[in-house]
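worker-3 :: picked MFS transporter
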Amino acid sequence: MPLALYALAIGGFAIGLTEFVIMGLLPEVAADFAVSETAAGYFISGYALSVALGAIVLTAALTRVDRKKALLGLMILFIIGNLLSALAPDYTSMMIGRIVAALCHGAFFGIGAVVASQLVAPTKKAAAISIMFAGLTIANVMGVPLGTLLGQAAGWRSTFWAITIMGVLSFAAIALLVPARIGADVARHPDGLRGEFRIFRNPQVWLSIGITVLGYGGMFGGFTYIAFTLTEVSGFAAASVPWLLMVFGAGLFVGNILGGRAADKNLGLTLLVLLGGLSAVLAVFALTAGNQTMTIVSLLLMGGLGFATVPGLQMRVMAHAEQAPTLASAANIAAFNGGNAFGAWIGGLTLAAGLGFTAPLWAGAVVTVAGLVVLLVAVFAPGGEFRRRARVSAGTGTTTTPVLLPSH
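worker-3 :: tokens ->
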């Protein structure tokens, strides 16, 4: 694979770290700012909502900018946001830092997914996207546990100082490795930005976004308050949380790679199997969270099945919006993070209602089942995978494969 993909993965690592490490540090952050667990959880949902906003607004603003320059500018915004978080004197200042850092997230992955798909052969597009998103998974395997350990040992602010430094390193990697004009030949609508927004007239684009919000949001809803589930229900010591997060991160990494390969072969069936499996795992986790062995197994499977959906979900929306793949890609990144916010909100409601620390897992299972139902509607609807052979593409190259029947 081209080295430029790994530069994008480094950026994904830095962004993934700032998005996810806060979960392992929620108890410390809540205590420092003297707020409840639910209020601390708003650092997660607030970040996710800002990602959704930035994905559309910044992508639209950068639609005519050279892709490399756009990615570098977004990384500068990321660095500023994390610096603000590291220096935050109070809850409001911390939220502002989280919002600023989040604004670059959606546009970076939206533009980066299209760039990644242009660097490889048409039959490897989902696999290329999975490499870029591998940065997120490595952040969970290594970065989040280590960042949590650092935050517990030296204060949570030290973690955000480390993330700021990672942002600088990511900027340098993109500057050195990403070609200057890559993605310039990506298809754009002849009527400009207004024409590109016409992709939202396609019901399949909205169905894809809905699947992403619900399918990924279900997993995130179960995971947002996982530190409390592990300590209060499973009986693990707080010092064990970083290592347990590493198990979850290992699932993310393996699931992302395997999910990308599977999506290149059979997109629709891959998503159906993964969402069904994720729903079942969340329910089993809720039932067996009091058993430490089952908790470890469930963490691994939840991460694996949850993130295995990401390359396929991204490819699906791009396949149904070939005239504006960058905007569609960014919109789906917004959907991922809208799902994050929705899942965190639902999980927070269950906790506030006094339903216990397994309640977010049950809520996540229900939300994921809803995503599976929307997927079933989509594949049987006009233009869906069951009705036609989907063109799995983004930009200039295409590949045609059966997406519900086994590929040959």
